[in-house]
Amino acid sequence: MTVNPIISEKPFDFFWFIPTHGDGSYLGSEQQQRPPEFGYFKEIAQAVDRLGFPGVLLPTGQSCEDSWITATGLAAHTERLKYLVALRPGVVSPVFAARQTAALDRLSNGRLLLNVVVGGNPTELAGDGVFLPHDERYAQADEFLKIWRALVSGEQVNFDGKYYRVENGRLDLLPVQERPPLYFGGSSDAGQDLAAEQVDMYLTWGEPPALVAEKIASARRKAALKGRKLRFGIRLHFIVRETEEEAWAAADRLISRITDAQIENAQARFLKEMDSVGQRRMAELHGGRRDRLLVGPNLWAGVGLVRGGAGTALVGTPDQVADRIREYQDIGIDTVIGSGYPHLEEAYRVAELLFPKFGIGSRRIKPREDIANEFSVGFHGAERLQASS
Ligand SMILES: Cc1cc2nc3c(=O)[nH]c(=O)nc-3n(C[C@H](O)[C@H](O)[C@H](O)COP(=O)(O)O)c2cc1C
């Protein structure tokens, strides 16, 4: 008898990640490292497009290959995959960003999504020419998005604000989508105020469900006061294996070459350089301590020992990880942005082990059951395989 897998009733999007700053098998080690090469990004993008991931996030920052140029290249080599690319208020002009938006949305035939990244590292931002304090960066982002939104919607823009002035701005060529959706991941009060007013999808790094629930409630309240509704997404790494032992062994292996000095340096740098509330919340989960990495059932903070931003992973069997995802779904999450080291292999593991729990990827070509080969013995093919070997 064939048992049907439990299919999640709540639809959700499972995105993946293009590691434009490089990839590898061990954090904190140069061994088995993969440099940021377009050919490798292309392998990942084509794999995840085929596997049924609907989209990928491309990060932005000093250490990353430019997300717009990378996404433009990848869009030409993929069919359905959507690209979540950063909008950078303060770093580029809103008119230039709107024109790029239209161009990439047209080139990709409507596969562009935007992640509004205001930035949480004043040292890096100073290098980019941005010197505003934390909350004022959000005031600037608000003006930026008003101009961007009007332009991509086909309006002529005259704007005289505190940070931007535009006279008779317009796009002659408009995006394919009515307006490419805006994603956003700031955790501060000012960030949530911006989200309430301007964005479509509010993102959080992978905090435990109770903390995510609080964040969602507060963002939802703020949006409701403006008469708006938000969608919610979470960013997590994944270590899914057939057995729990294998999964935890893979987690241990991933951080097995990190030295204590590397952890201290990374944590001190995050504290000293960054004013991001989201980053502080991530760091507080483990305090830089190897003995405090289990921050919830199947929720492990090992990645955050040396990586800024997304620092937690769901670790376990497909059933365990699926249960944890359902807990997040129950509090309102409808989009997961996953990743795993290395990103190509872990994309396959997630697709092959976890997707069947949610009925994702069902558009992949199904093998005929009556074909005899080494993967289909047990159906009608068993005897024929024997006969042919
Ligand atoms: C899912 C997600 C993705 C993010 N991607 C980036 C990124 O690529 N580059 C970056 O500098 N910040 C990124 N951030 C950080 C935020 O955009 C934000 O600038 C930062 O957290 C500071 O805001 P806060 O103080 O309001 O938390 C991301 C945040 C989230 C939740």
UniProtKB/TrEMBL annotation:
InterPro entries recorded: Alkanesulphonate_mOase_FMN-dep, Luciferase-like_dom, Luciferase-like_sf, SsuD_RutA_monooxygenase
Protein origin, superkingdom: Bacteria
Keyword Flavoprotein in record: yes
EC class of the enzyme, as a word: oxidoreductase
Catalyzed reactions per annotation: an alkanesulfonate + FMNH2 + O2 = an aldehyde + FMN + sulfite + H2O + 2 H(+)
Ranges of residues in domain Luciferase-like: 13-334
Enzyme Commission no: 1.14.14.5
Keywords: Flavoprotein, FMN, Monooxygenase, Oxidoreductase
GO biological process per UniProt: alkanesulfonate catabolic process
SUPFAM superfamilies: Bacterial luciferase-like (SSF51679)
Record-linked CDD domains: Alkanesulfonate_monoxygenase
GO molecular-function terms, A-Z: alkanesulfonate monooxygenase activity
Nucleotide-binding listed as a keyword: no
Record-stated family: Belongs to the SsuD family.
Function: Catalyzes the desulfonation of aliphatic sulfonates.
Name of the protein in its database record: Alkanesulfonate monooxygenase
Organism: Mesorhizobium zhangyense
